[in-house]
Amino acid sequence: MADHQEASVTLPSDPLSVAAARRYVAEVLSSWGLPEDADTADTVRLIVSELATNSVQHTFGQSPTFTVDMRLEREEWLRVGVTDSHPRWPRRLPAAVQQDNGRGMVIIRWLAAEAGGRLSVSPTEDGGKTVWIALPWQPVGAPAAGAARGC
Predict the structure, then answer these.
(1) How far apart are CA 89 and CA 2, in angstroms?
(2) 79 HSE (CA, 13 A, CB side)
(3) In whole numbers, what is the pLDDT of the chain averaged over residues?
(4) Is-contact 145 116, C-beta < 8 A?
(5) DSSP labels for 93-131?
(6) Cα–Cα distance between 144 and 138 in angstroms, integer?
(7) pTM summary value
(8) Which residues contact 119 (CB under 8 A, 6 or more apart)?
(9) What is the distance between the alpha carbons of residues 132 and 80, in angstroms, rounded to a whole number?
(10) Any long-range contacts for 28-33 (C-beta under 8 Å, 24+ apart)?
(11) Lower CB count within 10 Å: N or C terminus of the chain?
(12) Are 136 and 72 in contact (CB under 8 A)?
C-alpha cells in the first residue's frame, strides 16, 4: 500500500447525502483493506454520519455542499474530515438544550477517544471549517482497540 492515500467526495447539503457519505466511507475503507465488520469501520461510519448530519442541519442552508476527505497516512493514522463553508464552528449546547439534540459532537469526541484518536477543527480558506477525526489505523487481523484492553 502507498505511504499516503487520499479520497474525497463532495455532496449536496441534503439529509439524503448523509447515507451517501456513509456508503462512500465504507467503500473507501474496504478498498484500503479494512473489513466492513471491523470495529474501526463501524466507528468511522458513525462519526461520518454525525459530522455530515451536523453539516446539513447546522449550516442553515448557507453551505450548499459538504465534503468528506479521507487520508491514510503511512498506514498508521486514518484522518477523516467533513468540510462545509459555514463560518460557525461546532459547539456543545447547554444541558437544557441537549434534551432532544446537541449530542453529536459529544458522541464524536467520545468515539474518537475510545478508539485512541482525537477530534480537531480547522478553518478553511473560504471562511468555513473542517471537523477532523484522527484514529490509529487498525490493519486487517489486528485486535480492536477495546479488545486489546480487555473491554
Answers:
(1) 33
(2) 14
(3) 86
(4) yes
(5) PPTTGGGTS--HHHHHHHHHHHTT-EEEEEE-TTS-EEE
(6) 7
(7) 0.84
(8) 105, 108, 109, 112, 131, 132, 133
(9) 6
(10) 28/70, 32/1, 32/5, 32/72, 33/1, 33/139, 33/140
(11) C
(12) no
Cβ-proximal residues to 39 (8 Å cutoff; 6+ apart), any chain: 115, 138, 144, 145, 146, 147
Question: Among residues 10, 88, 78, which one has the least CA distance to residue 38?
Answer: 78
Q: For 3-34, what is each residue's pLDDT tens digit?
A: 789 999 999 999 999 999 999 999 999 999 99
What's the pLDDT at 145? 47
Among 10, 7, 5, 4, smallest CA distance to 128 is for 10
Q: In the beta sheet, which residues pair with residue 5?
A: 72
47-66 average pLDDT score: 90
As given in the structure block, the three cell numbers for residue 79 are 484522518
Rounded CA Rg of the chain: 15
DSSP one-letter string for 129-140: EEEEEEEE---T
pLDDT in tens, 77-94: 999 999 999 998 887 666
> Closest by alpha carbon to 21, among 100, 76, 77, 84?
84
